[in-house]
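Tutorial, part two.
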Amino acid sequence: MLGGMAGGLSVEVTSALIGGGAGVLAYGALNWNERRIRRDRFRRSLVFEIRHVGAAIERLERALPDSEAADPETAADLETAADLDVDLDDLRSRLSTDLLDAEFRSIGKLTTVEIRHVYRFHEAARVIARRAETGALDPGDSTLREQIAVALETRDDALDSIRRSRLSRLTEWYKDVEARR
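Running the prediction step on this input gives:
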């Protein structure tokens, strides 16, 4: 009877405990990796959307006449958004924040700092989007320029705050190397 016991446990029980522990560790590692991949894909999509919306805001900023350089008569002639060199339908579609609206629960995958910056950017972009929807893009309005400046600043802050894991960047680098072969 004592011959079948190794250190107080039978070989079968010891093997079962070791196998169960290894299974729990493997499941935990796979679960962690899957959550990391989903979080990083969300971050990558969010970065794309922020850059896309930010580029539309930059195009709007470039379309506005330079307030210091423009002569008063030319600035007075541009009274409506239709006078700007901007396609309003295109601007409205580019200013939409579809990803964040559709995947709002996914924002919990980000850190608190990331959430704060992303939320500030989306709110600044929504202010400009609302003005574009109502046609209130008056080139002579100084608040429009201020809102654009705030949106571009918060865009840069949001992009700087989003941190991607080193593993994901390594994986993407490897995929780029493989794609060039």
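The longest helix spans residues 11-63. In part three we will examine how such features are distributed along the chain.
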